[in-house]
Hints:
The structure holds two protein chains of two kinds.
Chain A: H1 2-21, H2 25-45, H3 49-74, H4 78-87, H5 90-112, H6 125-132, H7 137-182
Helix pairs in contact in A: 1-2, 2-3
Chain B: H1 11-40, H2 56-66, H3 77-95, H4 113-123, H5 125-135, H6 138-169, H7 174-179, H8 191-205, H9 216-219, H10 229-254, H11 268-290, H12 296-326
Amino acid sequence: xxxxxxxxxxxxxxxxxxxxxxxxxxxxxxxxxxxxxxxxxxxxxxxxxxxxxxxxxxxxxxxxxxxxxxxxxxxxxxxxxxxxxxxxxxxxxxxxxxxxxxxxxxxxxxxxxxxxxxxxxxxxxxxxxxxxxxxxxxxxxxxxxxxxxxxxxxxxxxxxxxxxxxxxxxxxxxxxxxxxxxxxx
Amino acid sequence: xxxxxxxxxxxxxxxxxxxxxxxxxxxxxxxxxxxxxxxxxxxxxxxxxxxxxxxxxxxxxxxxxxxxxxxxxxxxxxxxxxxxxxxxxxxxxxxxxxxxxxxxxxxxxxxxxxxxxxxxxxxxxxxxxxxxxxxxxxxxxxxxxxxxxxxxxxxxxxxxxxxxxxxxxxxxxxxxxxxxxxxxxxxxxxxxxxxxxxxxxxxxxxxxxxxxxxxxxxxxxxxxxxxxxxxxxxxxxxxxxxxxxxxxxxxxxxxxxxxxxxxxxxxxxxxxxxxxxxxxxxxxxxxxxxxxxxxxxxxxxxxxxxxxxxxxxxxxxxxxxxxxxxx
Lengths: 185, 327
């Protein structure tokens, strides 16, 4: 299992680095997908198959599909490549990268100290469900309220536009129709 | 009870055998489909090469391997080459969780089997999306847009339709799901889930009548317009592997998998599974022969306005009954 963990972890780190540094948007997204799949592998190795399956289904299989979908629709021209390259000038990333490096050192130090050791029993889907609908019920309900609000808002934004268009079109068609009827030429 | 195999097979042999059987079956299906379609349409179909024309499979294979494997100069080369292999890889990985019999399976008793199946089918979308996008052509792009919209939507109903079965079994493991059907196949209590799963499964495989992403009279060949040679062959065979997978899943989830009268013979579970899966495959071919393609917007509307409420209702009612029985 530790071989799986280190392989998946290594792939995740490499793919994430490539996702950040590739100038081509679709290529970057592909690396991000690989990184998410590798993260699922890490979860599997840590004994959380349910979380791993959700990672694949929800993130790699649904959310990233929408990302790729939108990027495809925008169909960024080759020019976008060059512009992104400009954004990747060292002056832009050296500050954040240095700070993240410090965090990484801290993390390595924490691991070296032996604290926060991973491992333990495998968590099955049933246990996750019992935990979600037991002690964490309030969190689940709050989350679902938030999602419902988002759904209603999206429906509202999408819907009003259509109705307005339809009403205008119907009115125009109706007026035209009446006019033709009353004054045949 | 299911009689055990009279011999013990090593796991690697089972894995290789399942892989070869599924891919081989998918290749033979090319002939089966053309022949069956022919008979249902009052013509002969390919009947010249060898016995009953079954040599057509080999002839088609040779033809597709010899064809010019052309990558268009305007395509995104790396993605164009990778895309067709994704569908084969993901669908074949999903086959791993199908329990053909209690022994003949790769990971049939994995405790997230159903979720793994859903995850792999949702990853299969990338094949079509990336293939269409990297082709850099208008028809391919339009096919890809349809494919993504169709797959993302119908995945939802597929997952929800499965939930009824999972609630009744109380497990995501496909082996447990089959064992829970010893008294009654789930197609009876979950008839609605079965219908929704079948429509969604058909939509996921992009097969006629739901092959809107390729719809040749509108989009030339849809997402694989620019593909040729064996790269096209991958999409083509991948579709048949998906048909095998969906048929096997319908058998496992709703028709009792390997269960059936065994008369004490060790091979009967295999025969039952093969017979049920074969019946579904032929049914998919019959659908292709019988039903015309719907209009794309009507098809999407049908999904969200009819299938979604129905599948949610199915989950709620099933849950209520299971909770009511338990208390």
